[in-house]
Amino acid sequence: MLLVAQTDVTQVYLKKLRSTAGQIALPEHSTLPLTNVTHLMAVDYSVRSAALYFSDLNDDFIKVLAIKDAGRASLKKILPVEGTVISLALDWLSANIYWIDNKYSAVQVAASEGKYRHVVLSDGLYNPTTVVVHPPTASMCIVDLGGEHGIPDPTIECAAMDGSRRRILWKRSLIPVGLTIVDSGTWLYWADQAKGSVESIRLDGSGHRLIRRGIHGLTLFTIGDGKMFWTTAARNHAIKVWHSQLDTVENWWFQTNLKLVDIKIYSKLYQQGRNGCSEKHGGCSQICLPNPQGRSCWCTTGYILERDTVCIKAVICSEPFQACSDNSKCIVKEQVCDGNLDCHDGSDELNCHYIVNKPQAITPSRTTLMQTKPFYEKKTLAPIKITTKKPVTKKMHVQPQTKYKSTTVTVFKSTTSTTTQIPPPRRGQKPTRPEVGKWQNPSLVQGVKQSDLGSHACNTETCNMRGDCTVENHRIKCNCMLGYSGDHCEKEEPKSTAGSIVLSIITVLLLVMGAAGIFIYFRRQRSRLRASSTGSDKTLAIYQKDNQPEGDSFVEDETCINAAYDPGQEMSTPLKTSTSTDL
User: Fold this and answer.
1) Looking at the record, which segments are called Disordered (predicted)?
2) Are 224 and 125 part of one and the same domain?
């Protein structure tokens, strides 16, 4: 356990702590070699590297004291800050440093050596005082004491260590101190100075518990290794350090004359695990922040993120150019509020007022003005047939008119040009159908100025890189490629599977026909062989009949054949085959 006083830090060994009450002297302890410190404000400790991170009231740096063997130590300034750091938390897996200072109502983070920094949380914070992290689960919790006079109320909230998944856990505390995440990142403990209580809650916001109550003069609190510690003021400006097991109600204490500003508990078992930034900095070129799903990469001011991991230097624009809000591109002043999205983030078309003129004579089209009719006359928009062609990414500087099968719109009669705000479509944003009520106003006219449809009307983004842009009679037309449709080729048509089904059926039929042909072929061959064999047998039978004497009569009885057989009568010459035509 660390007892943090104004000018020194004392290590108390919990294994040597006796469970006795009324101990006057400090238990077995050692003092860290801090020098030139006027008033410690915030500390955190890395068990892995045996390094103490701290901030001083009169110093604009976060420093680290690396404790080496034989009691040697080295002090180093690693992170310049503005104002006074009042809370400090170390991600011991990635060496990122989180802090809160008295100048900004925000939680900031910096890489291990302080070269890159990023604001993690700032929206909705009034008076943040404490930040704690649990790197293995990528969890971060803070205390916000709220605005003046307790409005809004103090809150305890948690988020991922990259600022995502932010949620409020508890809103009924008065002055919470000693915020600590324990039990493998599932429970959050704290003490309330005003109520004199010790409380806990799960990090999902459930299971609130009141552990202790009625602690008078409570100032500091911490918990770890199944023990909780808190301090109260004693006589003669001394401080009592109380300790108790979580599962018991017995309390013990020892006394110290140190002017404590904080107490912490650390152990090797507690600082273990891994997260999305613990190895090779998560592949991020500057700042890697863990979250429950893995990690997210961030860039410091003056850089922009590309391909999710690489930070490149933002562009610097000189006159007459100016930079987009994301510092990714330089544009001229004439490109601001010109109806075209020239910046990747669309910042050049924010908060713009567009003047829209109604042309003299028009026909229903996707990019022209709605034709005005007499008062309360209704007009039905017919569906528009769309052809497809090679895509070319372009963005229209007016809001495209959405196609409907049958839509009735009430239009007011108007004969003069009107002015309205029509924001340009965002990159990749689908056009939406305006509500009928919005068009029941004579000052609202959908369209663009005829003079605006000049050479600048078709740019590289008008048809979303999915068609060719042309200007015909002061009207923009997109010829979309196959598979895309819409006024600006913004719709992707579902691919038909009829062709593949027909091809599969044809392939199966061809295979069946081929198998049938092979079967018929072999069957015919077999029939021919049988016919040939039958013909040969018939020829041989005719030959034997023709060469048999007329008077001879053969009996098929085997006995008769054997009795009639005389070896001496065997022919002495071979039988000659006749070649006469009678055969």
Assistant:
1) 415-439, 564-583
2) yes
